[in-house]
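Q: Hi! First time doing this. I have a protein sequence and I read that you can turn it into a structure. Is that right? Here it is:
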Amino acid sequence: MAYILDVMNGKIEPRADRISLEQYIVENSYVTKHLSRIVKDKALAVYHVLFHLTFFETGKSEIIVPWAKVGSFIRSEQGNIIDNNTTVKRRLGDLFQNKCIFVNRQRGSANEIVVHLPSEIPACKELIEKEESTLLTTEKPDDADYYTDPERRLMVLERDRRKCTYCLVDVAEDS
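A: Yes, that's right. Below is the predicted 3D structure, encoded as structure tokens:
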């Protein structure tokens, strides 16, 4: 069974040397929210498969996998499963360039790959930090409403032409 599912279902306890369920959820959201703006579509599909095979399945960033297995999770525009090593390999340049993955070594048909979390990828990390700083500097919404602020009550009264919005009866300011 998959590590994240087992943790979610309480079948196993989270391990300190693996990704936590909370971190997995956050990092997975970064894949679609931020990393998708950095890498090309097909390379993003390859990254997403590698992210799943590593962090979801094992909770760790390392995996030994043949490129054909990675491609078996992806369909082409024609709907065919991509089981060709070359097709997957062509998509890797974008992932290497953006430091999304690192290939430790190739062993025959299998490759030893380290998949970086989106928060560890420099360009993605920059987008995450920019979003967080924007959230911190954004003004908080005004909590005053027409129940607590007499001026707003008058504004609502004027907006509704001094009529109850439910029964259309005339309403006075002192009501």
